[in-house]
Write a structure and sequence with these properties.
With 228 residues, the chain is α+β, with helices and mostly antiparallel strands. It folds into three domains: 1-31, no CATH class; 40-100, SH3 type barrels; 116-224, no CATH class. Helix content is 44%, strand content 19%. The chain has helices spanning 21-36, 112-128, 132-148, 157-169, 188-224, and strands at 7-10, 15-18, 43-47, 52-60, 64-70, 76-82, 86-90, 96-98. A six-stranded antiparallel sheet has the order 6-5-4-3-7-8, with no helix packed on it. The protein is elongated and about 70 Å long.
């Protein structure tokens, strides 16, 4: 039987044989996906804050990094990030370029490895720390205070007082299930990085919960004064 799906594709080093339609189709689809999905060839800019920016790095200057990223479908948008905020760039070929410079006389007083541990803590907290209870607690306490104040002008003090109290009294702890390696729990830089993000997320939840609770508490008080 004569074959109609025999192809020879010449490369400088060798011949590549595509002997079946399925092989040809799979290779074709792989190439299409590669060129249509920019994420497969993105560089990664790791910030000292623990966040990662994905895009194609266009230039690296002393004061800023210029990069582009997919925006609104196939369009790309060019943006900049200050170099002092960046720890490293990992290019799409896997090579990492560390931009952070250790200097004990400046704010860059951590060594490269110490800062890696610090950032690892931030990343784990960003990914896995969920302080939902802080928001619930703020909602309950602030709502109760707003109701007790009897709807006076001082109702605004309820969420403020609740937020301040939770910020200082509600302890920030590490969620062990979000830690990538249990050995890092004994590393002070990792713990500090984790708690920095965890505290920020806890306070934000407490703030939203407190103001939302105050609004609900005030609303319940107003409704309780009406005759239905």
């Amino acid at each position: 039987m004569k074959r109609f799906w025999n192809f020879k594709i010449f490369t400088p080093k060798h011949y590549l044989f595509i002997e079946t339609p399925i092989t040809f189709i799979l290779i074709f689809l792989s190439l299409v996906l590669l060129f249509q999905n920019p994420a497969l060839s993105q560089d990664k800019i790791l910030l000292i804050s623990g966040k990662t920016i994905e895009g194609k790095v266009l230039s690296v200057a002393t004061d800023s990094i210029r990069y582009e990223y997919p925006f609104n479908g196939k369009k790309t948008h060019v943006a900049y990030v200050e170099t002092f905020r960046v720890f490293s760039i990992t290019f799409n070929n896997g090579n990492e370029k560390v931009l952070y410079k250790y200097d004990s006389l400046t704010v860059n007083d951590r060594t490269e490895q110490e800062l890696r541990n610090f950032i690892a803590g931030e990343q784990d907290a960003l990914r896995g720390y969920k302080p939902a209870f802080a928001g619930v607690l703020g909602f309950g306490i602030s709502g109760a205070l707003a109701f007790i104040i009897n709807g006076s002008f001082f109702v605004i003090l309820a969420p403020v007082a609740t937020y301040i109290a939770l910020s200082f009294l509600y302890r920030t702890s590490i969620d062990r299930s979000s830690v990538r390696d249990a050995k890092l729990l004994s590393n002070p830089d990792y713990i500090e990085g984790y708690k920095r993000i965890a505290k920020s997320k806890k306070n934000r939840n407490a703030l939203w919960g407190s103001f939302l609770g105050a609004g609900v508490g005030y609303g319940v008080f107003i409704l309780s004064q009406k005759d239905f």
